[in-house]
Amino acid sequence: xxxxxxxxxxxxxxELELQPNPDGWFKENFHRGKLAxxxxxxxxxxxxxxxxxxxxxxIHAEPWDKYLSPTxxxxxxxxxxxxxxxxxxxxxxxELGTADALYVPRGVGNSFCTLAPHTTYNFLVNEHWSxxxxxxxxxxxxxxxxxxxxPLKYTERDAANPxxxxxxx
Length: 169
What we know:
Blueprint: E1 2-5, E2 12-15, E3 18-21, E4 24-27, H1 32-37, E5 44-50, E6 56-61, E7 66-72, E8 75-81, E9 91-96, E10 100-104, E11 108-114, E12 119-125, E13 134-135, H2 156-159, H3 164-168
Antiparallel strand pairs: 1-2, 2-10, 3-4, 5-12, 6-11, 6-13, 7-10, 7-12, 8-9, 8-11
Pfam families: dTDP_sugar_isom
Protein name: dTDP-4-dehydrorhamnose 3,5-epimerase
Family: Belongs to the dTDP-4-dehydrorhamnose 3,5-epimerase family.
């Protein structure tokens, strides 16, 4: 596993070793000791599967750290600094495939768009789920996220998220 810092403090882009074999590939997606070195003690593993490209979720900042990685397909991930720091509102985007992962600390917003049909996305978290979260409009012009040029599908709940400016108030 190779870890790279990003422009958002604490967000790490992780390259996982994908080992091809005659049947496909193998990867070590989770290693407790390696994640503990990053400061994460996993308590829950969630898996989401999406049948179509263009499914968008987010922007959500939850009260837990997240380790995100696709096991099939590809995703475009947009990460937004939502903690009360000078870099508030900074966006960084990534394209993630099966050999990639992101570590996103609590309070940082994350969102994604499936780039391929039959995408499966893993979320490891260090706190059990709760409804508490901060959310921001996926299409807020201030964030200027360059979403993929696909027909996008998102939930009514995400479409109703407030603008970034509302979080400053």
